[in-house]
Amino acid sequence: MSPTVKHAARLTGCTLVVVLAATGCGSGRHAPSAVTQPAGVVKAPHAAASPSTARDPYAPSVNKVPKLASDGITVLVSGSHLKGSVIYPIPGRVRAGEALVIAVNCQGPGRLDAEVRAVGMSFSLPCEKGTVLPALNEFQMDSSHSLGSLRFTAKPDVMWSFTVGLDPHPPKPH
Hints:
- The chain is mostly beta strands and about 170 residues long.
- The chain has two domains: about 45 residues, no CATH class; about 90 residues, Jelly Rolls (Sandwich), CATH 2.60.120.260.
- About 15% of the residues lie in helices and about 35% in strands.
- It contains two helices and ten strands, in the order H-H-E-E-E-E-E-E-E-E-E-E.
- The chain has a four-stranded antiparallel β-sheet, with no helix packed on it. A four-stranded antiparallel β-sheet has the order 2-9-5-6, with no helix packed on it. It has a two-stranded antiparallel sheet with strand order 3-8.
């Protein structure tokens, strides 16, 4: 076997081992959510990843709205690629026992403040330059309220996306 064929076979074997380790094939268990790459893995030559193939399509982004779990949560309002301070009207009412769910992804130096005065909830998120940080807040209501509006306050360098939903059957608090 020539040295070139041996090298190609070795690279193929290493690639297969990495793929099997990352997907958990054959282990009978689910793969961990964070996979660490073993030391000494050789990358195949001429296999430069393009930006579109290197990105995780499920990674948090400020350029698309965050997804909410589909367990009956109704999306009320959402927005993406937002900067600065913005107010969004939230249609409808929340009833006692339901939960208002707000998912936010933020990026940039500073923080993002969110407030829904009508239901008495607010929160702040630290945001980082170069990193998209996801957050999910769920507020279970003790009484019925009109939702009013959601006010975001941030410096112009902070960008974010958000989704607001209504969960009619949230888990019971302990």
